[in-house]
Please model this.
Amino acid sequence: MRNSIVEEERGNAHSLELESSAATPLIEIKNLKKYFKRRPSILERVVAKEKESMVCAVDDVSFQIFPGETLGLVGESGCGKSTLGRTILNLHGKTDGKIIYRNQDVTEMKGKQLKEYRKQAQIIFQNPYASLNPRMTVFEILKIAIACRGEKDFRIQENEIRTLIDRVGLSQSHLNHYPHQFSGGQRQRIGIARALAMKPEFIVADEPVSALDVSVQAQILNLMEELKTELNLTYLFIAHDLSVVYHVSERVAVMYLGQMVELAETKELFNNPKHPYTKALLSSIPAIGKENQRERIILEGSVPSAINKPVGCVFKDRCFMKIGAICDNVRPAWTSENNHGVACHLFSEEKIHV
Model:
């Protein structure tokens, strides 16, 4: 009972915080697009006579992330979540749109200005087994990060490294070990320490627990929550596990085939999903007890190709609530009411005129 009261108070406090900072988001994404060129193989060019095409990884996405919050980003594999996160960090160059960080356009930054942004915006990679240099010790990995931040004094570097390794729950004796000597959970802690070495205020957590055992997942999530409170961090938390997103996020955004289809506060989205795709995702969460179970929604068909995206609604071929020709021909406009946004013709004014 006490935990639920604390949770409710925390949620109310965060809502007030968002309202007070509504005019000054930390990160603002405006109509962001990221397309990749796809070159056909020799066989495709000779037999099928295919030409170079574009893969629409992120297609006209807009949202805001406020200081001190965790925004969860969910969707099926291949929907563009990781590409979106990396484009925000300018690891991928954008095709179109704007990424505004503290009233500055990240896509226009160059040289020293871009270097300063990358100190403030870091990433925790999905795969803890591939994200660390196997030829470096933990000490060397963290030392490089601190040096890149601009700290050249070896004594200060060493003190910071020892503080970081303690902060992420590892032992001082681990500093001289190589990545292959650690478990997956320990490697992810090293990855978190490396991100923190730059003293960032914004972190893209790209499915940071998906490759870990369930018991280790809980440890890493608790660690991230502690660090968020202690260091006043802001997270974009990318995941496909909705139950994890529910516990760590203040708001949740849902992506499908490169487009944002719904965005709302976590409890609102889980209790009152509007988009058919969100309803299908939530129905897949295992529940204990009949009173907690949702009606299972099984989507038919497969996700369309990101190369030749369908006209109209991208979800129309799998939608169990399709309302007619408007879904086939018109892309749904984004509508928002009480901070609950959705891109679906069921909630747009256009359907009235069709």
